[in-house]
Design the sequence.
């Protein structure tokens, strides 16, 4: 599927990896729906990028709000044929600390946003995609999820985050198999350490230490590099059911 023909529904699209993806879609001639929290910069970004971008505020864990965002995007652009799931949160807490056990509500929140939110968007968007006309390759849509190298190399304090991202990895192949007959491909990207707003909150020595752990290139990943891989997945019809690490060969240490 060509990016130029894409109508992309990008969750977490107002910043970081999602924003870079929106910009790449638009630069490639496609159209994009930014799905993010009402308090995000989604509206401002949409105005900056012009008529080929729509901001549709929504909580990815809400069926009603995601359906509303899909309705808004399809009402504006006529269809949705690409979904990129970038919405997520980062949490950290040891299983047991001096203050007590890991707060269960924090674990539940992490799973709800990162895993259940991703699946909620997939299931609702895929139903809409299933009514699209097939292209010359027989495709009706492409879904790209965001996991993390923490799914494989979870560090101390990342039990909830790793579990949530491991769930995204684990459901990629079965969902790709579920949707194959409908002509919808599903892949997941597992980024390493990227220069996103979440990481921008860290002190500079911490950022430098993280960059130094990456074998090559020994720097933080750039959101545009994530977006470039999204574009390749969209345009390469043989990529399906796969999780791709995008990490400069890093393997995370325990801490």
Sequence:
């Amino acid at each position: 599927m060509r990016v130029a023909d894409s109508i992309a529904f990008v969750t977490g699209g107002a910043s970081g990896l999602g924003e870079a993806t929106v910009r790449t879609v638009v630069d490639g001639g496609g159209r994009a729906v930014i799905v993010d929290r009402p308090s995000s910069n989604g509206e401002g970004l949409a105005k900056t990028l012009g008529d080929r971008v729509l901001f549709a505020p929504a909580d990815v864990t809400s069926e009603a709000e995601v359906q509303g965002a899909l309705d808004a995007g399809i009402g504006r652009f006529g269809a949705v044929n690409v979904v990129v799931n970038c919405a997520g949160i980062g949490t950290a807490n040891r299983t047991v600390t001096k203050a007590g056990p890991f707060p269960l509500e924090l674990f539940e929140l992490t799973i709800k946003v990162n895993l259940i939110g991703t699946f909620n968007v997939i299931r609702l968007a895929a139903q809409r995609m299933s009514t699209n006309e097939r292209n010359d390759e027989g495709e009706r849509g492409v879904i790209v999820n965001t996991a993390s190298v923490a799914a494989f190399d979870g560090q101390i304090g990342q039990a909830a985050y790793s579990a949530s991202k491991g769930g995204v990895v684990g459901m990629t192949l079965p969902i790709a198999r579920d949707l194959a007959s409908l002509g919808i491909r599903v892949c997941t990207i597992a980024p390493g350490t990227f220069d996103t707003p979440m990481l921008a909150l860290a002190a500079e020595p911490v950022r430098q230490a993280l960059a130094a752990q990456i074998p090559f290139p020994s720097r933080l990943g750039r959101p545009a590099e994530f977006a470039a891989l999204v574009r390749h997945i969209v345009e390469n019809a043989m990529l399906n059911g796969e999780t791709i690490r995008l990490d400069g060969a890093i393997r995370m240490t325990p801490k």
Observations:
- The chain has a mean pLDDT of 96.
- The two ends are 40 Å apart (CA to CA).
- The chain has nine helices and nine strands.
- Residues 91 and 161 are 6 Å apart (CA to CA).
